[in-house]
UniProtKB/TrEMBL annotation:
This is Helix-turn-helix domain-containing protein. Residues 127-252 form the CdaR GGDEF-like domain. PANTHER family: CARBOHYDRATE DIACID REGULATOR (PTHR33744), DNA-BINDING TRANSCRIPTIONAL ACTIVATOR ADER (PTHR33744:SF1). Belongs to the CdaR family. It comes from Streptomyces chisholmiae. It comes from the Bacteria. InterPro entries: CdaR-like_regulators, CdaR_GGDEF, PucR_C-HTH_dom, PucR_C-HTH_sf, Xyl_isomerase-like_sf.
């Protein structure tokens, strides 16, 4: 009897093949090998197990063995041994063809799933699909787009894709910590991307930590590692919005040379506001910092002086240390800036104008780029 998990038609003609092999001593014909290979593919598509399929063929060979004419009807021991060897070789061929067909079907299915997953991710992160259709497809990948989601993006100096060991390592860490909590980890444009439920901020925070550590292991420092976390937004469009916020945070970190490795869009909202009206910002930079062009050597060092001053909380001693200057030399630079611009960095209102202009200079790439 065939194995109960395998329909009988998967064994059609198999006993007859073994009977003929036992008499002729031949190997399987190409057509017979192709037939077993096709049966392996069909079994994979039908969801049958390869182990059960092979077991059923071995069981069928064992059941047919006493009736094989080349074995039972052989005149001598040598002939029986030869016939038995041919039957075993044919069984090996059949099993190998079944496994090859099964594995080929599995590979096709995996590639098809990978293509579908990649297409879904592209549509999800760029909002290029009908939202109703996108929500229906999302269920297959464990997301409920009607809920609120947060997107985090991690970037290092090395590109990564879904098959990268680093990607798998971060994914394993998330799964081990949180289990299947409707979290999607993927890659986009060589960056790691995590889509998580918006009401579970601990998921993206843990992703940020794991990604930071994993990416930093590729380097001797964290200077070229950034993780950005968008805000939580509802609905299918919320994923796109949170993803774009994370990308904007990464872009701002690059332009403004921000120090934190983990950036949160909610803490950077002032910068998109400042960057929204580029004409007004260019006018501010030109008006406030433009006079620094009159300094010997140009404006670059004096802009760096203001940068260090504001980044150190307007503490001259700390700013001087960051620039490897004496406090006296640093104070002289501040005085020179006041002389050229007419704005006193120690005055609260004028300091705000200067700091906003310095931020604008970073956003616009000034003085390296003309306004």
């Amino acid at each position: 009897m065939p194995h109960r998990a395998i329909p009988v038609h998967y064994l059609d003609g198999y006993a007859e093949i073994l009977a003929d092999v036992s008499v002729t001593g031949r190997r399987l014909f190409r057509q017979e090998v192709d037939q077993r290979r096709e049966l392996g593919e069909r079994a994979a598509r039908a969801g049958l197990g390869l182990r059960e399929l092979i077991r059923a063929h071995l069981a069928a060979a064992r059941e047919a063995w006493p009736e094989l004419p080349g074995v039972t009807g052989a005149a001598g021991t040598r002939q029986i041994s030869s016939a038995a060897g041919c039957v075993l070789a044919a069984t090996e061929q059949a099993v190998d063809a079944l496994a090859e067909g099964y594995e080929r079907a599995q590979l096709v299915a995996v590639r098809r799933d990978e293509a579908a997953r990649r297409e879904f991710i592209d549509d999800l992160l760029h909002g290029r699909s009908d939202l109703g259709e996108l929500s229906a497809r999302a269920e297959r990948f464990g997301l409920q787009l009607a809920h609120t989601h947060t997107v985090a993006v991690a970037w290092g100096d090395q590109p990564h894709d879904d098959t990268d060991p680093l990607t798998r390592r971060v994914e394993t860490a998330l799964t081990t910590r949180f289990g299947p909590r409707r979290v999607l980890l993927t890659t986009k444009d060589a960056r790691l991307v995590c889509v998580a439920p918006g009401h579970q901020p601990d998921v993206v925070e843990y992703f940020a930590e794991q990604a930071r550590v994993a990416l930093a292991m590729e380097r001797t420092s964290e200077r070229d590692v950034r993780v950005a976390i968008g805000r939580a937004h509802p609905g299918p469009g919320g994923v796109v919005q949170s993803y774009e916020e994370a990308l904007t945070a990464l872009e701002l970190a690059d332009k403004l040379r921000l120090q934190p490795v983990v950036l949160r869009a909610a803490e950077l909202l002032v910068f998109p506001v400042l960057n929204r009206d580029r004409h007004a910002m260019a006018d501010l930079v030109s008006t406030v910092l433009g006079p620094l062009r009159g300094a010997r050597g140009g404006p670059r060092e004096l802009v760096r002086t203001l940068d260090a001053y504001f980044d150190s909380g307007c503490v001259a001693a700390e700013a001087a240390r960051r620039l490897s200057l004496s406090v006296r030399a640093f104070t002289y630079r501040l005085k020179r800036i006041e002389q050229l611009t007419g704005a006193d960095p120690s005055d609260s209102f004028q300091r705000y104008t200067l700091q906003t202009a310095v931020i604008g200079a970073r956003l616009l790439g000034w003085p390296d780029q003309e306004l």
